[in-house]
Amino acid sequence: xxxxxxxxxxxxxxxxxxxxxxxxxxxxxxxxxxxxxxxxxxxxxxxxxxxxxxxxxxxxxxxxxxxxxxxxxxxxxxxxxxxxxxxxxxxxxxxxxxxxxxxxxxxxxxxxxxxxxxxxxxxxxxxxxxxxxxxxxxxxxxxxxxxxxxxxxxxxxxxxxxxxxxxxxxxxxxxxxxxxxxxxxxxxxxxxxxxxxxxxxxxxxxxxxxxxxxxxxxxxxxxxxxxxxxxxxxxxxxxxxxxxxxxxxxxxxxxxxxxxxxxxxxxxxxxxxxxxxxxxxxxxxxxxxxxxxxxxxxxxxxxxxxxxxxxxxxxxxxxxxxxxxxxxxxxxxxxxxxxxxxxxxxxxxxxxxxxxxxxxxxxxxxxxxxxxxxxxxxxxxxxxxxxxxxxxxxxxxxxxxxxxxxx
Length: 407
Known about the structure:
35% of the residues lie in helices and 36% in strands. By secondary structure, it is an alpha+beta fold. It folds into two domains: 36-49 and 60-142 and 236-404, Porin, CATH 2.40.160.40; 147-218, no CATH class. Strands 1-2-3-4-5-6-7-8-9-10-11-13 form a twelve-stranded antiparallel barrel. A hairpin with an 8-residue loop joins strand 9 (329-344) and strand 10.
């Protein structure tokens, strides 16, 4: 009898211990899920602060586009490798895991299906792109952590005090008029009284630059200090400040097949995007340079010949309007000068090389939906052509977090 009672007690004890262990594991999993969900909203909101042009260069998650709607020509879908992985492993949204996914976040692949005006199939292309430099993504969590914002201000304060003391001591503790310029660069009550960078003494600028290099004060710089100082307390504005001037450089390739040939065209491309003005609440400028080489065979009157075509363009993306509350870009216009050169396989009567002008005017309709209008001008023909597109950047259709803004 005693043995039976002992076995019952041991059984109950084991069951309770197992239940407690299972409960603890369930709680741990629940906390992970909550953390992942919260971080997902932070990441998606940060992505939505990138310009539409930046998302065209490298998609953060998924991108769906219908290009040249006049003739219904192109259906395009792109995805980052991270977006695919995160669909099967939600814990990747946790910041420590997210930061480790460097290759996955910088690698994008996709498909482009082309049809004629009657929507009859013409070709399919697969593409891949990788960001060699992606500083816009590197510090994506800098604005999501209140402690980091506090440290940001500590760094800014240390930078000012240290640099000012060095500058003041170099003047042998004597007051000089330039001291007021330095003081009003870092500490001002009225925006009209602040000293712009170009009015600072050159020696002081050299001291600040030296301190940044020696002590790793990044992401604080003398160029963005005033913007960050004014944005403290609004993490979205800080994120925009940190990302606005960052660079993005990608390389990519595309292989196209049509009804007659498995590989009918090969394309290699590269694109560089860099903010060139300091951030403010309503607009900004980005330098956009891209180039590509197309290799394919062309057939005219039963004669097939090989063509190599090089194309390049340089433009300035003008961020015309940002919402002051959310800091999201809503209207952008990118005029550019384009150059084409037929390296081999020139058609009869074709100009080997030419310059044209083009541009993209884009409007943000919702958090996810953009309407880009491609505008092309041929100076030789004296004609302007317009192509209407629809682009959607999203985490996943039907996402519960859609209200936070996905790109």
